[in-house]
Amino acid sequence: MRYSALSIFLNGLRKNTGWTSAWRFPEPKPHYDVIIVGGGGHGLATAHYLAKEHGVTNVAVLEKSYIGSGNVGRNTTIIRSNYLLPGNNPFYELSMKLWEGLERELNYNAMVSQRGVIMLCHNDSQQAAYTRRGNAMRLHGVDAEFLDRRQVKAMLPFMDFDNARFPIQGGLMQPRGGTVRHDAVAWGYARAADSRGVDILQHCEVTGIRRENGRVVGVETSKGFIGCNKLALAAAGNSSRVAAMADLKLPIESHVLQAFVSEGLKPFIDNVVIFGAGHFYVSQSDKGGLVFGGDIDGYNSYAQRGNLATIEHVAEAGVAMIPALSRVRVLRSWGGIMDMSMDGSPIIDRTPIDNLYLNAGWCYGGFKATPASGYCFAHLIARGEPHKTAAQMRLDRFERGYALDERGLGAQPNLH
Amino acid sequence: MASLVPCPHCGMRPREEFTVKGAVLPRPAPDASQATWFDHVFLRENPRGPYDEYWHHTSGCRHWLVVTRDTATHEIKACRDVADNPAVTA
Question: How far apart are CA A146 and CA A196, in angstroms?
């Protein structure tokens, strides 16, 4: 069923009894051309682009819970492509361009809102670093503007510009950055992939990877054995556990990252604002809640919940940036499990096993990368060679000494 | 995360007093092969379940501890001083 203003109107006349399920609930077939492990944003996007760009439609997406139950529904919904390194920037810009056309492509309202992302700077060296980053972005054809203190003050008058320790000097803005309704991304990709024949198998947990003669022949699941020609892993958060089923040891630690939403407020923060002194980022949802987050808790975890000390730390950073936040009540907090790769950058690559492909290590940046991740992973699976924007996101880069250390931060800041 | 940690020197102490350093890994010999060092520096078992970690009792006795913690439940199963641990070498 195609969604449109007319379909809403007509279904309204029929008391909304005419809507059909947005995707099917099929039983597993005995064999697929491609099986994707992980029904999050990346797995569903991969299935969509495999079907749309490469005509590979005999595909199954295996999800241990329900789709959207993992990190695609647990992030702070920010999209941006303000990256410095040549190995990262074109990839995230591809993602941004795909975001810009996403709703038309999927016929699904994902509430893509390009409200601008501003990263604040607090001293001369940070200003120089952001100017350099802005120039690197422009050289790659990405929009970037450096705002001085006066310009930032005009846009964000409620911030503490004369904080004794972190006075705000200016900020680097990417006007095309913004936010997207995260659940709708999972649902939109699921619906689009399903409409092209992809089977989305929910509550189907992979328990083993069966190999014969050094090749993957299929997966053991909670719904029995399912055969495949190619196996693609997109199980961020649990990548190490799934990879271990194929005897692979990854350069990844699983950490918990928390996010928060406040009570609903009147329109207050127009953009996405990132505090350069601490790690704090905030935007205001269409419902009025302030959505914000900070750093990972700092210890390995698979628990999908964080601890209070980190909540306190994030709140302190928030109040240092916007004093008025001290009066705001937090409605909810939750945690997602991040694949923290050792250099802070992702992996989209083949593995030592010929027909096993890996998409992992997204650290803080998985959500914004969703479309490009799916696009490039589908390209790799279908053609056997990396997409040019993701060519440096290799699994063996650590061993070869080509770490992609955008922030110099992986699972632990002292590693690199 | 458990809110109380059983420090062998100080007794039950709040988690905020501690700093988590990371996995207890066998340190290779300086002249070990490149592959061994690569494994040590970059690769992780990353288990879901019991996990040995180095913790520092930063705001307490300032001793380094080995904490065995479950990464799925956050339950702390054991805590001992590094000095009481058999030497960790490859």
Answer: 43
